[in-house]
Amino acid sequence: MTAIAAQSGAPGAAHPGEPGLFIQARWAVSDTLTITRRNLLVWMRVPAYIVFTVIQPVMFVLMFRYVFGGAIPVNVPGGYVNFLMPGIIAQTAAFASFGTAIALAQELKKGVIDRLRSMPMARSAVLAGRLVADTARMTVTILIVLAVGYAVGFRFQNGPVPAILMVVLSVVFGVAICLIAAYTGLAIGDEESVQAFGLIWLFPITFLSSAFVPISTMPGWLQAFANNQPVTYVVNTMRALALGGPIEANLWKSIVWLVGIFVVFAPLAVRAYKRAA
Amino acid sequence: MGLGQGREDVVTGFNSEPAILVEGLTKSFGEVRALRGIDLSVPPGTVLGVLGPNGAGKTTAVRILTTLLRPDGGRALVEGHDVVREAAAVRRSIGLSGQSAAIQEELTGRENLEIVGRLYHLSWPRARARAAELLEQFDLVEAADRAAKNFSGGMQRRLDLAASLVGQPQVLFLDEPTTGLDPRSRLGMWDIIRSLVAGGTTMLLTTQYLDEADELANEIVVIDHGLVIAAGTSEELKGRVGGDVLQFTVPDRARVSDAVTAIAQIGEGEPHVDKETGVINVGVGGRGSEALIEAVRNLDAASIEIHGLMLRRPSLDDVFLALTGHAAEEDGQPDQRRRGRRRGSKKDSAGVAS
After folding, report:
1. pLDDT tens per residue, range B52-88
2. Does domain B2-238 sit in CATH 3.40.50.300?
3. How far is A118 from chain B (nearest CA, A)?
4. Would the pLDDT of A208 be above 60?
5. Model ipTM?
6. CATH homologous superfamily for the domain B243-313
7. Closest approach of chain B CAs to the CA of A178, in angstroms?
8. How would you write chain A as a 3-class SS string?
9. Disulfide engineering: A174 pairs with which of A93, A149, B75, B303, CB 3.0-4.6 Å?
10. Which chain B residue lies closest to A125 (C-alpha atoms)?
11. Facing residue for A109 by CB, picked from B93, B195, B342
């Protein structure tokens, strides 16, 4: 143990003065990547996370394709599986936000965020690293779900570029939802409450949309909600990209909603992080 | 190079700028006034023990000093840097190890330390080397590549402390470093802390355990309800109680109040009774042996059975009791729970020794 004494005595980490802007920017990037790496490592170490993020959406695909699908008449080329996949991918992207909210709430409660905030690292890195890691995780999940979709009969009908754009749109949508989740996770700060809160808003907005069934099959009052909410706009846009058909109106509404979410919730999440004390 | 100088000054006995300076610090959470104007000064290379019950304001003070919380009033300097205006500079010179082990449990001990090294902007090879060094020093080499969640409580704390030393801080904040640890792990932690002190690290250590402050700290401040109610060395504080303490246990809980009546005339102050354990303590001033004999007579006359009768020098427990009117280990105040944040858990009784 005598070595400790010698080690800690040396004032090694002290930097004289404040580092320049360029160095600070480089550190911000490097810190974000370090946190991203850490988060992805954690994700791969916890089987429950993999089940929740990968197996669950795959089960949804199989269930809707083979259990409910037969009872749902749709008017798209290729039948229900083609109707379903854009919807389920949007839902998968949205549900990825559970991971964001739960992880942040846990880190806050366990004091991990405090510890990081007492270190000379870039303050933005915790939140940025969380979002980058979750975006990577979400993208992997979406690609897996898409592969499973292909195995059960889904086919893009509109060429490769719109297909890629569909995946990009779903990821952007997922990141927007993750921002909302980051805010709620930090503001609520308790893992179980955060999870419950996620369920009570994410389930309705994904199921009461055009994701799984044509809205015309819903009762009138429900149609009024389903037709005018962001998940429907995003799913309709994704569906048009995947299968062809008119896209304009839904695309613009999606963009307006997504930009709106970023503009409102990015500052809220940052503020909640700063206040998380 | 104020720092290196500071260290030499300690050796040569020179007076120099304090490593931690706190003046009139206040902080409220809504209605709760967590800190009501505290002053502290810690010379470089020394250990300040901050003693107080749960909710006294210890953790709030540490959180302000480590830049996690902004004070409402007053000022605090660490290594000469203001914790609000020069927070970045403060963060470069401190290490923090908290009540709960703030490590990533899913990752291995080594990964945890390497990641912290990277966040201190060490290169990958340096971060790896530093992690290996610390694992070696903290006796964690064998467990290094296991997930930290499989570590024992003591190992997790050691890893947590190791993480706080990655950046080789000049000032280390230890917030209840042994709360919840078993007695053996506590002793191990004390050894580590002593060796850090021997290396010249300035330390602010909060604790609910009086024996811990007694063992480790050069100076002690006692905080209660957000105020410093006493300060001095352990010996000075003990001097405040004045004289000896008579202690005994009444195994039959039903007779405890009779016992208190029997010795009421002997003590210099109110006897303190621990209802759970039946332990009675009473200060007897300078008339130690006389009081001892009288106590035996009175208790025998009342035919009260007692165990472990002794006359002893006052401990910091007695000091705390004398200063605050309640024992250090009791929860003094309704908890200032802040938005679901976990406070120190109710400690194991193992730590309450003395």
Report:
1. 888 889 999 999 999 999 999 999 999 999 999 999 9
2. yes
3. 6
4. yes
5. 0.83
6. YebC, transcriptional regulation domain (3.30.70.980)
7. 22
8. CHHHHHHHHCCCCCCCCCCCHHHHHHHHHHHHHHHHHHHHHHHHHCHHHHHHHHHHHHHHHHHHHHHHHHHCCCCCCCCHHHHHHHHHHHHHHHHHHHHHHHHHHHHHHHCHHHHHHCCCCCCCHHHHHHHHHHHHHHHHHHHHHHHHHHHCCCCCCCCHHHHHHHHHHHHHHHHHHHHHHHHHHHHHCCHHHHHHHHHHHHHHHHHCCCCCCCHHHCCHHHHHHHCCCHHHHHHHHHHHHHHCCCCHHHHHHHHHHHHHHHHHHHHHHHHHHHHCC
9. A93
10. B119
11. B342
